[in-house]
Design a protein that fits this description.
This is Integral membrane protein. By secondary structure, the protein is mostly helical. The protein has six helices and no strands.
C-alpha cells in the first residue's frame, strides 16, 4: 500500500468515525460522562480528517479546494466549540452548541459532496442543520433577569 492510499484510508476512516461519533455526541445527554468522552473522540476524528485532507490536497494533481475549505472550517468550528466549553464563560452554552453542531453540518456537507454529485449536496445540510442549531442554541440560552449582560455586570459590581 502506497502513502497516498494509506492517507486516503485514514481520511475516509476519520470521516466515517466523525460522522458516527458526532451524531452520538449530539444525541448524548449534556452532562459530564458520555457527552464529554464522545466530544473528545469527535475532536480527534476531526483533527485526523482535517490533517489528512490538507496533506492529500497538497499532493493532488487537481485539488478540490472547496472540500479543503470545508475541512479547515470544520476543524476551526469544532476546536472553537471545545475551547468555549472548556472556558465556560457566562452564556457559553449556546455558542458551544452553535460551533460544534455547525462543525458537524460541515462534516455532513463534505460527505454529501463526495458521495452525491449534485449542487444540493452543498446546500441541503446547511438548510436542514441551521434551523435545528438555532433552535437548540435558543433553548440553551440563559433566561431571566440575571441573564441580561448589563444587569449581570451591575449585579457583579
Amino acid at each position: 500500500m502506497d502513502v497516498h492510499a494509506l492517507l486516503l484510508a485514514a481520511h475516509v476512516g476519520a470521516g466515517c468515525a466523525g460522522l458516527l461519533i458526532g451524531a452520538a455526541a449530539l444525541l448524548a445527554r449534556r452532562r459530564r460522562g458520555w457527552h464529554v468522552r464522545l466530544g473528545r473522540a469527535y475532536q480527534g476524528a476531526v483533527a485526523l480528517m482535517t490533517s489528512t485532507a490538507l496533506v492529500l490536497a497538497g499532493t493532488a494533481v487537481t485539488t478540490p479546494w472547496g472540500l479543503v475549505v470545508i475541512a479547515v472550517a470544520t476543524e476551526a468550528a469544532a476546536l472553537a466549540g471545545w475551547v468555549v466549553a472548556r472556558r465556560r464563560r457566562p452564556g457559553w452554552l449556546p455558542l458551544h452548541i452553535s460551533l460544534t453542531a455547525g462543525s458537524y453540518v460541515s462534516f455532513v456537507t463534505a460527505a454529501s459532496m463526495v458521495n452525491w454529485s449534485s449542487p444540493l449536496a452543498w446546500v441541503l445540510p446547511t438548510l436542514i442543520g441551521s434551523p435545528l442549531i438555532a433552535w437548540a442554541a435558543r433553548r440553551a440560552r440563559p433566561r431571566g433577569p440575571a441573564s441580561r449582560p448589563a444587569l449581570r455586570r451591575t449585579l457583579a459590581s
